[in-house]
Each structure stands twice: as C-alpha cells, then as structure tokens.
Amino acid sequence: MNIEAARKSGRMAVTIVFAGVLSLYILVMTTTTVHAQNCMHDEYEWVSVIKPTCSRFGKDIRLCQDCEEILETEIIPKLDHKCKWERTKEPTCTLPGVKSYICKNCSEVIETEEIPAKGHRFARAKTQSATCRSPKITERTCSVCGFSTSEQSGGRIEHRYKWKVTRAATCADCGIKTGTCTMCNVTKTESIPPTGKHKYGDWSVKSVKVKGKKLKVVQERSCKTCGRNTREASGTTASFSGKHDNGKYYYKHTKKTGRIVILCSECRQSVSGKISGGTIKFTRPKKNNSKVSSKGWRRVYIMCACFLDNMSYGLT
Ligand SMILES: [Zn+2]
Ligand SMILES: [Zn+2]
Ligand SMILES: [Zn+2]
Ligand SMILES: [Zn+2]
Ligand SMILES: [Zn+2]
Ligand SMILES: [Zn+2]
User: Fold this and answer.
1) Near ion ligand 5, which residues have CB within 5 Å?
2) Do residues 100 and 85 lie in contact, with contact meaning Cβ atoms separated by under 8 Å?
3) How far apart are CA 273 and CA 233, in angstroms?
4) Is the CB of residue 100 less than 8 Å from the CB of residue 114?
5) Structural domain boundaries enclosing 58
C-alpha cells in the first residue's frame, strides 16, 4: 500500500509544477497585449481573410504586425463565372427542350434558351384498303413516342354480291335471288323477271260467228305451266256461194295444230283454215262430201247479231 501512495503523490507533484509554468506564460502574454495602446502600427501586411469566388465577395485586411490590430478592410469583387452551355432538358417530339448557360463553379444558371421540339418521326405507313364498310385508311406511327395518326381517303366501295337463286322464275312469275356480300355478309334480295317461255297446250275453238256468207273463227290456247297466258288466232273465211241456211254449218278441229275445216252440210262446200302468225288463213270454198255424222264433226252453234239483239230485247 505504501508503494502505491508514494506513486500517487509523485504524479501530483509533476502536475503542480506544470500548472505553475502555464500561469507564468499567461502573465507574460498579458503584458504584451497591454503594449498595443501605444503601437504606431508601422509594420503591417495585407492578409486575405476571404478568398473571392464567382458567388461571394472576398475580403482583405491590413493587419498590424506588432499589435495585430485590423487597420483597414477591403472588399474584393466577385470573380467571373465560368460558364458553358448544357442541355438541361431534352426536347421530345412535341415539347421543346431547354439549354442553359451554367457556371461550372457555382451552378448558377445565367441564361436559358429553348431547343425546338423535334417533331414525330413516322415510320412507313400502314394502309388498309377500302371496303364496303370503310374508306381507305392510312395509319402512321411515330417510331419514337408511339403517337399514331390515321387518315381516311376516298369513299367506301360497293358491296360485292354473290348471288344465289332462292326461288326460280317461271314463265309468268318472278323468281327471287339473294345476294350476300363477300366482304361484310350483308344480304339483299332482288327479283328475277319471268322467263316468258310459256308452254302452250292445245288449241280450242273459242267462237264461230256468221257474218253474211263468211264465218269469223277465233281459236285460243293457254300455257300449260302457268295456266294464264293465252294466245288467240282469228280469221275470216271467204264467202260461201249460193243460198245457205246458217244453221247447217259443222266443223272439224285438230287440237294440236289448230287446223279447222268448216263444212256446210247442205250445199257441201268446205273451207279449211291453218294458223300462221296469229291468224287463221282459210282456203277458198271447195266441194266436200264428208258425212257430218262421222267422228270428229261438231255443229256450229250460231250466235248471230240478230239473235243477240233479240236476247237483249228479251232481257229488257
Ligand atoms: Zn500596431
Ligand atoms: Zn459561378
Ligand atoms: Zn413522336
Ligand atoms: Zn359489303
Ligand atoms: Zn306460262
Ligand atoms: Zn251451204
């Protein structure tokens, strides 16, 4: 324990000696400062305390080398900026950019200028040809920003119909055809005109009228398919000679050709008629000994003008 105590006291002694030297030093320094009041400031020098930059004023002081009093202060002007142009914002297709005149030391922006927008850069156009639904479309896309424009030109084109017969036309009736557009599938119906190709059946005798010594014959036949369209052929015979009883006429008729033979059963004169181009052409009266009782002969029932007149009378 004694050894430890002795060491401690030794250390303390060293400390006390050091403190004494320090207080002596302070005493000397104080004595020197007091001396300033009588300094003539003969020895001085300029000292730069703040170096000027482009953003800050500098400061120099004149300092007395003896008493260290600041005798004069001078403000040093700022230095010039060291600038260069820099692109601070790149232009896009549609927006202008900016270039700035910037000091590389203090980063101050001295001046700005606009960089014009670059405009779109369109790649090759894509075209879609006109259809029955839309006109020709030309589409362009900017390869930089993806902006696209589409432009229409010309008009739509006509539908392209592919026709199919829905109902065939007959000799007398219209048919129907349906068209489907090969592009848009729109449909349209149209009528097909009748063929007009009637298939005529056999001739029949429509009327036989007596006009003095002549007979007017009218035949007709109609279409077997439509049953409607009828055709007529008429003709007047040459005069029968001599005196006649108008109630004694007979006729023989061939349905297929329309050939007709008219015979007066009393005086044995006959004419035969043949149809050609809508009229019946008759031969001149000639002798005919046919027996009207044989097959094929029919009686001509006369409806003469006077008879019709009588009928009219009867009716009133
Ligand atoms: Zn001084
Ligand atoms: Zn600067
Ligand atoms: Zn663009
Ligand atoms: Zn179409
Ligand atoms: Zn017909
Ligand atoms: Zn006769």
Assistant:
1) 171-172, 198, 223, 225-226, 229
2) yes
3) 11
4) no
5) 44-80
